[in-house]
Amino acid sequence: MEWTFSLDNINELANQFWKAAGEKKVFAFHGQMGAGKTTFIHALCDAKGVKDVVGSPTFSIINEYVYDCEGTKRALFHMDLYRVKDEEEALRAGVEDALFSGHICLVEWPEKAQGIFPEDALHVYIELINSTTRRLKIADN
Ligand SMILES: Nc1ncnc2c1ncn2[C@@H]1O[C@H](COP(=O)(O)OP(=O)(O)O)[C@@H](O)[C@H]1O
Ligand SMILES: [Mg+2]
């Protein structure tokens, strides 16, 4: 599936994304620096009703947020592996524990630790088209 979007309709796309995601828990966001990964993850968190202010987790690898799921508080992890050197460092930081926790995980720079992702992770690709437009693709399966 593929969508073209801008900041004007990012919230609509975030809602559609969660519908398309089904029961998936782990989402790997690929895309160059500035593509819009953090911004889209922020919109996904808003759509889930995450209360904390979600900023770029540039200086911490794992950020844990809480949202309300039909009356139950659930954790949601936003991870940015940009500063992670390799899989070993990711393991030490607790990335694998989060990925297999059963909680929703939204991960930037997954290629830094490809080998520790669950096989059923949903890979998402964000591309910059121009200054106001982005393209988002998810594999059909
Ligand atoms: N869908 C979008 N349409 C237009 N501009 C966007 C979009 N998403 C993000 N941006 C802008 O692009 C810049 C980089 O976004 P960011 O989410 O930090 O990228 P990344 O996390 O991929 O490095 C920000 O200035 C942001 O406002
Ligand atoms: Mg980012």
How many helices in DSSP terms?
4
Q: Let me know the average pLDDT.
A: 93
* Strand line-up in the sheet with most strands: 1-7-6-2-5-4-3
Shape: globular
Which regions contain 5 or more consecutive residues with pLDDT less than 50?
none
Q: Any idea how many domains?
A: 1
Quaternary organisation: single chain
Report the radius of gyration as a whole number of Å.
14 Å
**Pattern of helices and strands:** EHEHEEHHEEE
| Distinct small-molecule ligands in the complex | adenosine-5'-diphosphate, magnesium ion
Task: Give the class from helix and strand content and strand pairing.
Answer: alpha/beta
The CATH class turns out to be Alpha Beta
CATH topology: Rossmann fold
Termini separation: 10 Å
> At the fourth CATH level, what is the homologous superfamily?
P-loop containing nucleotide triphosphate hydrolases
User: Using DSSP, what is the number of strands?
Assistant: 7
CATH architecture: 3-Layer(aba) Sandwich
Portion of residues within helices: 25-40%
Q: How large a portion of the residues is in β-strands, by DSSP E?
A: 25-35%
Characterize this entry briefly:
This protein has 141 residues and is an alpha/beta fold. The protein has four helices and seven strands; from the N terminus they run E-H-E-H-E-E-H-H-E-E-E.
Give your account of this protein's structure.
With 141 residues, the protein is α/β, with parallel strands linked by helices. α1 packs across α2 (37-48). The protein has helices spanning 10-21, 37-48, 87-93, 95-99, and strands spanning 2-5, 26-30, 62-69, 72-80, 104-108, 122-130, 133-138. It has a single domain, classed as Rossmann fold. It is built from four helices and seven strands. β3 and β4 form a beta hairpin. The structure holds adenosine-5'-diphosphate and magnesium ion.
